[in-house]
Design brief:
Number of domains: 3
Structural class: alpha/beta
Shape: globular
Strand order of the largest sheet: 3-5-2-1-8-9-10
CATH architecture of the largest domain: 3-Layer(aba) Sandwich
Radius of gyration: 23 Å
CATH class of the largest domain: Alpha Beta
Number of helices: 16
CATH superfamily of the largest domain: Methylesterase CheB, C-terminal domain
Distance between the termini: 42 Å
Number of strands: 16
Length: 399
């Protein structure tokens, strides 16, 4: 593989992660990629991770140093007491303050997504908590791959379960099976190179027929969707099913209708957070919502439409702002927030109103206590907020 096209695989692990890491590397060949391991380590104890991992991998293993350049067929370990990012393939280290929640995996994955874009792969292994859940959303946003350890094979299920619940996991496997899946995924580069904007006429026809199959089986029309994204996601599925041409993949879909829905799901990437755009939500809170509520009579209904609501965080954020303002004014208005998206899986997640504990970095402690119910590693939206929002599948297409 061309060094300029290097894939970097970031492995996030915490409690119980060493066993999973060893199983993964017992089955990993030298495949021309780089591995970076982000593990929660106690700053008070010496780490023997490099020595232990050397027994399971033939690749060169380095404890990362500030400014170290990432090279193929090498494994880089984050030092204890540090957070790590990456820029222009150079690893950058900063101190990790023990008083703060450990978000080392989220921090690195976010930086990796921005630096490597679709040449980034995230692997989330055993661990408590929810670190990594936000990071994999960034990986997906830039077209990378997300693999999560099957919780049934994990000693601690918090991190894998949180990642899966986010809807951003492409593949869920036991650690020893992950390397083969990565190898299959890397083959998609050859397919993508064949499917440029100048693909052959017969391929162009097959591509249109594939999109037509999706439109016939689902309420989704991807005709005008970003072409590079469409091609890349189709190529990933072709590599997974060991199909080498678009024509053959079209026939495969015809023979396996459930795969049509799975392919459509690959085009839908939900990237959102609570109170995602700080300035926008401040404007809504300080100006827009007060003006709208002030103009309403108590017999009126306040109706809001959230377009492209994804997994529901922004719709619930809006509901919280409205509820707070109504409470401060001691005003009782009926509120209906219509939240729509074309992604059925994302809507299913949204309607449950259950989110990973990592939302605590976006939602204040006061709001978490008032509008959510905490259960283990999740927060559930309280009924007084949940009942304000109606989720529905809807495609907004402008001709």
């Amino acid at each position: 593989m061309d060094d300029k096209e290097l894939y970097i695989i970031a492995i996030g692990a915490s409690a119980g992660g060493m066993e999973a890491i060893h199983l993964l590397f017992d089955n990993t060949p030298e495949d021309g990629v780089s591995y970076v391991i982000i593990q929660h380590l106690s700053p008070d104890h010496k780490s023997f991770m490099a020595e232990l991992l050397a027994k399971h991998s033939k690749m060169k293993i380095f404890v990362a140093e500030n400014g170290m350049y990432v090279k193929p067929n090498c494994v880089y370990l984050m030092p204890k007491g540090k957070n790590m990012t990456i820029q222009d393939r150079k690893l950058l280290l900063t101190d990790n303050h023990a008083s703060q929640p450990n978000k080392a995996i989220d921090i690195f994955l976010n930086a990796l997504a921005e630096d490597q874009r679709d040449k980034s792969i995230a692997v989330i292994l055993s661990g408590a908590g929810s670190d990594g859940t936000k990071g994999i959303a960034a990986i997906k946003k830039f077209g990378g791959l997300v693999i999560v350890q099957d919780p049934e094979s994990a000693k601690f299920t918090g991190m894998p379960t949180s990642a899966i619940q986010s809807g951003n996991a492409d593949i869920i496997l036991a650690p020893e099976l992950i390397p083969d899946e990565i190898i299959a995924y890397l083959k998609r580069d050859l397919l993508v190179n064949n499917f440029t904007d100048k693909i052959a006429e017969n391929d162009e026809l097959a591509l249109k027929e594939i999109l037509s199959l999706i439109e016939q089986q689902t309420p989704l029309d991807f005709t005008d969707y970003k072409r590079p994204t469409i091609i890349r996601r189709i190529a990933v599925q072709m590599a997974h099913h060991k199909v080498s041409t678009l024509e053959a993949y079209k026939e495969f879909l015809k023979a396996n209708p459930p795969e049509i829905t799975k392919l459509a799901q690959q085009f839908l990437i939900s990237v959102t957070n609570f109170f995602r755009d700080k300035e926008a939500f401040e404007l809504l809170s300080d100006k827009v919502i007060p003006e709208i509520i002030e103009s309403k009579l108590v017999v009126d209904m306040l109706k809001v439409w959230v377009v492209g609501c994804a997994t529901g965080e922004e719709a619930y954020s809006l509901a919280i702002l409205i509820r707070e303002h109504l409470t401060s004014l001691k005003k009782d208005l009926e509120v209906k927030i219509f939240a729509s998206d074309i992604d059925k899986a994302a809507l299913s997640h949204a309607s449950k109103g259950v989110y990973a504990a990592s939302i605590a970095s976006d939602v204040s402690e006061e709001r978490l206590d008032k509008f959510f119910i905490k259960k283990e590693n999740t927060y559930k939206v309280r009924d007084n907020i949940r009942k304000m929002v109606i989720f529905q599948q809807f495609s907004l297409k402008i001709n």
